[in-house]
Design brief:
This protein is α+β, with helices and mostly antiparallel strands. The chain folds into two domains: 27-119, no CATH class; 122-282, Rossmann fold. It has six helices and 18 strands. The strands form three sheets. A ten-stranded mixed β-sheet has the order 1-10-9-8-13-14-15-16-17-18, with helices on one face. Strands 2, 3, 4, 5, 6 and 7 form a six-stranded antiparallel β-sheet that branches. The two termini are 41 Å apart. 36% of the residues are buried.
Length: 283
């Protein structure tokens, strides 16, 4: 199932938030009792088809909710006195590829069962043909396909390159291509270092690992391809540990200066953050 990405307006502007990222509140699945009052009527079974979400509904993408409902439905009815059955239900939900962690299932008399979840956060996407596939904060593929890179807060999920030419990885599988892993590490650091204002100025981007093997050459190793054909030469990925490689925080500070130039009307076609002093080619 494909979902439309958030529409983009002028450079650095988005219509509003779409996905919730790192550090969001946990989602709670409340499973309702078969009767309206467990204690009064003596009913100890809950119907897994009857549930509601609390505390973090915005984290659950529309394409994920049917998968959660299907997993709960497979459990049928659960007797709240049977701890093993309750734990089996929690394990079934924990196996879903978009669920990062399941907390302790709690029986709530007389309402049913409370099941706290922490969901994976999409931090990037992969392009395959016309589809954009979500990548989690752990570097695994998440369910769902989009027509465009989804908007996230003030920015967009960066697209990892190179694009997939063969079949995509299985949902839940980690990225194995070293070029994509390097691009993913850089995407993860993007969310850790850029402010909402910087993300708005950055706009949609591709983090391309095609030239990963040439970090000091003209191709620049990793590259950020921005809107209006702007290119940022990045070098090696954040965890490379190579002698002489600038710390990733300094690289993002260098790019912030480039974004400030754009905001002031000083356009450029290339911004090189690999050196102590960034180099750039004005337009």
């Amino acid at each position: 199932m494909k979902t439309q990405g958030h529409p983009r307006g002028r450079r650095g502007r988005v219509a509003g938030p779409w996905l919730v990222l790192l550090g969001a509140l946990a989602l709670i699945v409340l499973l309702r009792a078969l009767s309206g009052d467990v204690g009064a009527r003596g009913t100890t079974r809950v119907d897994t088809l009857r549930f509601r979400l609390e505390g973090g509904e915005g984290q659950l993408l529309p394409v994920w909710e049917p998968l959660l409902a299907r997993a709960l439905a497979l459990a049928d009815e659960v007797d709240v006195r049977d701890r093993a059955a309750v734990d089996d239900l929690a394990a079934t939900v924990a196996a879903l590829p978009f669920v990062a962690e399941v907390g302790l299932a709690e029986v709530l008399w007389p309402d049913g069962i409370s099941l706290p979840l922490r969901l994976h956060s999409p931090v990037a996407c992969l392009r395959q043909g016309d589809d954009y596939l979500l990548v989690s904060e752990t570097g695994t593929l998440l369910p769902g396909a989009f027509f465009a890179p989804p908007a996230v807060g003030a920015g967009y999920l960066p697209v990892l390159g190179p694009s997939l030419l063969g079949p995509p990885p299985e949902v839940g599988a980690p990225l194995t291509d070293p070029r994509l892993r390097a691009a993913f590490e850089t995407a993860l650091s993007l969310w850790q270092h850029l402010s909402p204002e910087d993300l708005a100025s950055l706009g949609a981007c591709v983090i391309d690992g095609t030239f990963l093997a040439d970090p000091a050459g003209e191709h620049g190793g990793l590259r950020l391809e921005l809107e209006e054909r702007r290119v940022v030469l990045w070098g090696r990925p954040p965890a490379s540990g190579e002698p002489g490689e600038l710390p990733v925080a300094i690289k993002w500070k260098h790019l912030e200066k480039g974004l400030e130039h754009l905001d002031k009307g000083a356009d450029w076609s290339l911004w090189d953050v690999r050196w102590d002093v960034p180099e750039w080619v004005p337009r």
